[in-house]
Predict the structure of Glycerol-3-phosphate dehydrogenase.
Amino acid sequence: MDESVQKIGIVGSGSWATAMIKMFEDNARGKDILWWVRKEEDLAYIKSYGHNPNYLSAVKVSVKPDNLFLDAKSVIQQSDIVVLNTPSAYLKQALKDVKSDDFANKIVVSAIKGIIPHDNLIVGDYLTKTYQIPLQNIVVIGGPCHAEEVSSEKLSYLTLAGKDDNTVERVATFIRGRYINTVLSDDIFGVEYGAVLKNIYALAAGVCHGLGLGDNFIAVLISNAIQEMETCLSAIDPETDRDINASAYLGDLLVTAYSQFSRNRTFGHMIGKGYTVQSAQLEMNMVAEGYYASACIQNIVQRYQLDMPICHMVYEILYHRQPANAEVKKLVAKLT
């Protein structure tokens, strides 16, 4: 194990962050785990009881009390590897006091499957632009995986993507273990954009399920979605030779579109059942990244003049308040 790495910091305190705490505790033994927790009352609870009170509360975590922080800056400054694991919409707030120098010489891992709203940037691009982090120091974690299954030690595969093979392997060393296999990739842009897109498609699947459409139709929807994803990734990054059927793309899409644990599918199902966007957001305790991603991806669609009817349908339903049933009917004629 890499002896130059002594401290691994996690910025985020939701389900996926909690599952990753357990994963690092199991697979990076002997390393200090530092954890930024957003709410003071949650931090106090974790210190007292060793459980996250709001997310995956049955999972035992063993982070030392002195390694729990309410400010991300302290975690980042003290860590050799920094894992960013907040919803994309909250990343800027979490890093509000952090400066470029705080990230100097760190390996920065993005476990965020979303786009930064308003900036319309994937996390990797946002980090290089805002904090001048070299792309060679950034690693992106892709699926397919759900926090609930990782935390219950069900065999899972994580794709780690980056431009520097040595950096990617160093991170993988602390992740792979008895119930985690790792797949290494150089397609940092494709893996990150693919993770953004699959949330939109899972939301579309949820809408259709909520409207009463069955498995036969949703299978056609998802087979069209992977083709749409390939079109988009090829336009954004045409130089990379990727297999769209690999687990980081098709696998992550399938698990997000079909799993009971998928918050994006759940959110879409509520919309299909007639919930407003606001009421669905209030009822869910977790962020559905596909909502924010839908608006951001429209900029890419327009920039590259892409034909992406599934993404367009979701955008019309969420942001233009178009009736879900009417938009799905329009989509039906475009599917093959």
